[in-house]
Amino acid sequence: MSTQKIRVSVVGGSGYGGGELVRLLLNHPNVELVQVTSESNAGKFVHSIHPNLRKRTDLKFVTISALQPVDLLYLALPHGSAVGRIDKFASLAPRIIDLSSDFRLHDPALYPQWYEHEHEAKEWLSKFVYGIPELHRDQLKEANYSAGAGCLATATILGLMPLFKHGLVDPSMVIVEGKIGSSAAGYKSSAGSHHPERSGSMRSFQPTMHRHTGEIEQELNFGVKPTVHFSATSVEAVRGILATCHVFLKEDLQEKDIWKVYRQEYNNEPFIRIVKTKEGIYRYPEPKVLSGSNFCDIGFERDTRSNRLVVMSAIDNLMKGTSGNAVQAMNVMYGWEETLALEFVGLHPV
C-alpha cells in the first residue's frame, strides 16, 4: 500500500461541495492540495469564501486556464460544465473524480430524459465508475475515473440496496420521499454551486421527475429495473437528507429476516450504521446528528397490517452525499484505508 502523497487539485472550489472537499483534503495525510479554481473569485484567498478554513490554508483561487498537471483532479463544477472539457481535464491528470451529474448514468439515451440535454461525450461514459464504494468497491479499485452520486440518490440507494440485491421487494412499486436541507436544494452562487439560504427556511416540493430518479433506478437494477416514484421536499435545515422509502415485500418476512439481510450487506462497511432501537434518543436515523460526518444511518419498520416496509436513510448531503463520498472513493482507488480524513463522527447535541 502506497503512502506517498499525491498532488490533487479541486476544479470549482467556491461552492459548498468544493469547500467541503478542500476542508477534507487539507486534513488528508496522503494528499497535497495544489490548486483550487474559481473563475469569479480568482486571486482571492480560499478562506475568503470558506471562512472555516482561516489559518488552515493560504491558497488562493485560480482560473481553470492556470491549472497545472496533478495526480488527481476533483471536478466540482455545475452540472453540464465538465462534459465538454473532459478531454482537457484528462490531459492534466490520470485520475478524475467528478461530483456532477455528467457521467453518472451509463446509458446516454437517459440524459435527455433526466437532464434535458444530449450527452456530449458518450465515449467517456463507460470509463466512469458510479462512485458509491459500498456498491462498486471492486470496480473503483481498478478505476481511473469516478462519477460522484447524487445526494438524494445516495441516501435512497444505500437504504434500499440490500432488499433489491436479495430480491425481497416488488420492483414495480417504490415510493420515496426525500427531505433535504437547503444546501442540497437551494440557491446557486455565481460559480454555480449550491449555497443554503441564510436561515435555512426555504421550502419547495418536487413531486415528479426528480433527476436523481434515473440513478436510483440504474443502481437498484439487479436484473429487473425498478419503477421509482420520487419526490423531494426542502425543510428548515441547512445540512442533511432523510429519505423515507416505501417498498412492498414479496413474502411475509419477519423483522429478524430483514435484520439478517442488512447485517449481511453492511456489517463490515465502515460508514453504514443500522439505527433501530427500542429505547434512548433518536431511535431511527436523524440527519442532524450526522452533520460533518460520512456516515449513512439506516432504519426500517414493518407495517404489521400489510407487506409494506418503510426504510429510513439519513446522511449529510455535503459529506456522504457529495464530498465525503468522493474522498472515500479516492481512498479506495489508491488502496488506502477507506476512512482516511473521514473519521469525524458528527456532533451531539446539535
Quickly describe the structure:
This protein is of the alpha/beta class and 350 residues long. The chain contains ten helices and 14 strands.
Provide an overview of this structure:
By secondary structure, this protein is α/β, with parallel strands linked by helices. The chain folds into 2 domains: 6-149 and 320-333, 3-Layer(aba) Sandwich (Rossmann fold), CATH 3.40.50; 151-317, Dihydrodipicolinate Reductase, domain 2. It is built from 10 helices and 14 strands. It has helices at 16-26, 46-49, 86-92, 111-115, 133-141, 151-165, 182-185, 213-219, 255-266, 319-333; strands at residues 6-11, 31-37, 61-62, 72-75, 95-98, 128-130, 145-147, 174-180, 205-206, 228-234, 241-248, 272-274, 296-302, 308-315. The chain has a 7-stranded parallel β-sheet, sandwiched between helices. Strands 9-10-8-11-14-13-12 form a 7-stranded mixed β-sheet. Helix 1 (16-26) crosses helix 10. The longest helix is centred in the middle third of the chain and has 15 residues, at 151-165. The radius of gyration is 20 Å and the shape is globular. Residues 186-202 have low confidence and may be disordered.
